[in-house]
Amino acid sequence: MFIYIISFIFGSLIGSFLNVCIYRMPRNLSIITPSSRCPSCNIPINPYDNIPILSYILLGGKCRICKAKISFRYPLVEFLNASLYFLVLWRFGLGWHIPVYFVFCSALVVITFIDLDFQIIPDRITLPGIPIGLVAGSLLMPDPFLRYSLLGFKASIIGFLAGGSLFYVIAFLSKGGMGGGDIKMMAMVGALMGWKSVLSTTFFGSLAGSVFGIFLMISRGKGRKTKIPFGPFLALGTLITLFYGQEILLWYLRR
Q: What angle separates helix 195-220 from helix 231-254, to the nearest 10 degrees?
């Protein structure tokens, strides 16, 4: 149990850094310097006020200096990333693939919130993620649908091509309804998780996006042409496939 607690704490610490990435990357700011500051008064945050999740609770969601409200998103991102690290360790156990899954899940978190705010998926995440996914998928990563079998070089290459080409065709047919960021994101997902994961991610992401779109139409009167960022739904579909791909396949085969 101790190792799971450590993974949660470590995930929350990384989640604090992800908040920096989410804010600065789309604004083309350095993610290294300067140190974290209050978004309202711009005064540097003391280390004891920058403890993930806990500091937000102790400060009542306000800056110690100027008393301005701090967005709930900050502890949410920290908690979400911590929970994902906990789940990764719980589902897959210790192994060389675990650090890759940690980085991958954190990348999905950053993609989700940046796409929600700016409707972009940064190349600074997906372009390095593609070769890393190809190397890791070829040498380290298990097949999400056959957890005790290595994905391998061939499946990684096919997954990369499937993810990129499928979403290129979708972007072409949608005439601007889908951006290049989604194409590169799915090429990254395919490289790391294989072509079956591309199909599963596309299915669950489309399903979640459709449900959300219908909800917006009913509750807020949004039209069918309202732009909805697809990255968060693809990230959700990816996580469903990552954690439950094998169970989903077995359930389908038993039907």
A: 120
